[in-house]
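Mods, move this if it's the wrong board.
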Amino acid sequence: MADDDYLVRGGITALLAELTDVEVVGTAGSFDALFSAVEEHRPDVVLTDIRMPPRFDDEGIRAARLIRHEYPGVGVVVLSQHAEAGYAMALLEQGVDGVGYLLKERVGDVADLVEALTTVAAGGSVIDPRVVQELVARRSAVDQSPLARLTERETDVLREMATGKNNAAVARALFLSERAVEKHINAVFAKLGLSEEANVNRRVMAVLTFLDSDDSGVQRG
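Not the wrong board. Structure tokens:
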């Protein structure tokens, strides 16, 4: 667990320490301390803030990229105060396997936090729905974007898909039948030029990878 704020770091650590299926093996308050802790403990997953010493800029993002490169088996969940698309794009540009981007307000829900840590530790990805919404909105604003071809309903379905929902969950969220959701998903993938996969999570990762593509026109933070 890495955060330069002692109270935040201690609070989250204490929260996780109460759980029987989570073991906090180390804490850090800076970029250098975080990487040293990963070298020493080789954890299953890292939970880190974005802004930390020495520059209080994007240390968490840079640490995540370095950790994923040096220790590909270690998952990284980044915490952010706001839904900042630039940071999310920088985090995802090397792929979405074993990474997560959550808003700090979600940390208060222990079940959601543990589920995110477990998913990322297993090689999956978890992106906060508000961050996905920001990415989709910015992508849609780009001239000649393939997302501009989507109908409003297809965009709604894409947004729900990208948060990790399966077809049944998307149907419940949008008050649609599963058959209608499947039809919209097929249309989304056809318009985005993405091959459909049987596994929902693989399709979600394909969508996020597309959002991070070089032709996105989105400025990286």
